[in-house]
Amino acid sequence: MNIKLGILGEKNIVQRVQEITKQFASMEVLPFIFSDPCDAAAQAERAVMCDALLFTDYCSYHEAVKQKHKQMMFYIDYDEYSILSSILYTGKLSPKKCFSIDYPDHIKLVDSAHDTMLTEYELFSIDYHKQDVENIQKLSDFHKELFSQQKTDLILTSRKDVYIGLLQEGFPVHFIQIAEKCIVQALEKTVQILEIESYSTNLVMTGILSLKESLPIHLHHQIHTEIRKYLSEFCKKYDAMLLPTKDSHYFIIGTSKLIKVIKENYRAFPLMDDVEKIAGSPIALAFGLGLNPLSSQKHAYLALEACQRDKGSISYLINECQEKIGPIGQRRNIDTNKLFYALVHQARLNNELSYLFIQFIVERNNEPFSSNDIADFYQVTKRSAERTVKKLLSGEIIKISGKESPYTKGRPRKLFILKQ
Predict the structure, then answer these.
(1) Under a CB-based contact definition with an 8 Å cutoff, are residues 307 and 283 in contact?
(2) Rounded to whole angstroms, how far apart are CA atoms 174 and 194?
(3) Helices and strands (H and E) in the chain: how many
(4) Mutual orientation of helices 371-378 and 180-202 as an angle, nearest 10°?
(5) CA 416 – CA 367 distance, rounded (Å)
(6) What does DSSP assign to residue 406?
């Protein structure tokens, strides 16, 4: 997949990113250099020919994202290494070895009192939530107060807007530089998400809705009219097509939007509940996923066979690998307390990753998943997700349940499921 990526930011960092993108053969880069710190939205408007936009700092991304753009937008984020390396580099410029620093709250800053590399420095730190627009004044005041009290002789900030403001006021402020590793991770994440988006838009979803019991003759027309009306509104909402048939079956055909709503309703499925209520009898709701309409219809019929084996209302999905997923809309019992204990003590995950994995499993209703699914949910690189999967396997939290065929050339992706 060839990607046309717009890089937006100041000249120096954009040139660094351009150099690093040479590692990505499928990527064509278009630079958009800021002539002014408030130039983000205007430059984003010029990048209409790009598939995606990558901002070199969060502040410019935040400004541009307020506008409505067709492209997906990303930004390069800091990590612990970026903060630490900036402390060590900039610390040489501080005669007192005392300075203030701010950083995003998702970063676990090392304890300077116990880290041997930082024992010679006295750090005054403050973290912030990136989405909070009130941070600018709060952070600026934090740095200025410490400097005016002569507790620090240097300021280190991770926000461009804070840096510009303090620099204009004459404070000795330095901007934390992005590490090369962070740039690579941002590029990998961009490629991965765009590929996933491309794969999902190439797939076709076919749904078959069937009533399991015959309707009373005097209610037949009224109930089917209500079902058609409900399904028509559903299809309109998710860009799908409705095809009623003579044998009281309803075909629903769609692509990315329909696929997304099915995946989001593994635990509870309002469509099935609402149609069952209208019909007053059990229904079968079968979905087939395929690379073309014919294969998706074939898989939908396989799912329908599975639905017919149960007397009550039920829904199954057969994916492009002919693997059965479901029942959809029925919550599976997951012992989250037991799972959390196993994640911490067996897989050796930290608390944050453990809570995220539990949320991931509960939302997916313990359906099979790949490392790509974890990467997409955690918003991390594929490499990072694979490391998490490796820990889960070694800790015997998950097991391999099958393989998912790739939608383009490449090796099949392994699918996993909870071992409990």
Answers:
(1) no
(2) 34
(3) 15, 16
(4) 120
(5) 9
(6) -
Domains of the chain: 3-76+180-199 (3.40.50.2300), 80-175 (3.40.50.10660), 203-325 (3.30.70.1230), 336-418 (1.10.10.10)
Residues in the chain: 420
Q: Give me the amino acid identity at 335.
A: D
Prior bond of 327 cis (ω within 30°)? yes
| Chain position carrying tokens 């037991």 | 338
Distances (CA, A) of 126 to 149, 155, 169, 176, 317: 17, 12, 20, 14, 49
Q: Does residue 86 contact residue 109 with C-beta atoms inside 8 Å?
A: no
Cβ burial, residue 124 (10 Å; 0-12/13-18/19+) = middle
Report d(CA 300, CA 296) in Å as an integer.
6
**Contact indicator for 367, 374 with CB cutoff of 8 Å:** no
Cβ pair 298, 288 in contact under 8 A = yes
Can you tell me the distance from the alpha carbon of 219 to that of 245, in angstroms, rounded to the nearest whole number? 18
Q: Are 149 and 124 in contact (CB under 8 A)?
A: no
* Closest residue by Cα to residue 194 from 387, 1, 392: 1
Residue 8 and residue 43 in contact, taking contact as beta carbons nearer than 8 Å = yes
Percent helix, percent strand, percent coil in the chain, to nearest 5 = 45, 20, 35
- Each of the 420 residues of the chain gets a pLDDT tens digit; together they read 578 899 998 899 999 999 999 888 878 889 999 887 677 878 888 888 888 899 998 888 888 877 766 678 888 988 888 888 888 887 777 787 888 999 887 777 655 444 555 667 788 888 887 766 567 888 999 999 999 999 999 999 988 888 989 999 999 999 988 888 889 988 988 887 777 666 555 688 999 999 888 888 888 888 888 999 999 999 999 989 998 776 678 999 998 888 888 877 766 678 888 998 998 889 999 999 888 888 899 999 999 999 988 888 888 898 877 778 877 766 666 778 888 888 888 888 888 888 888 888 877 767 778 888 888 887 778 788 888 888 898 888 888 876 554 444 444 567 788 876
Tokens 């939908």 map to which residue?
300
Beta bridge mates, 286: 208, 316
Output Rg (C-alpha) for the chain, integer angstroms.
Answer: 26
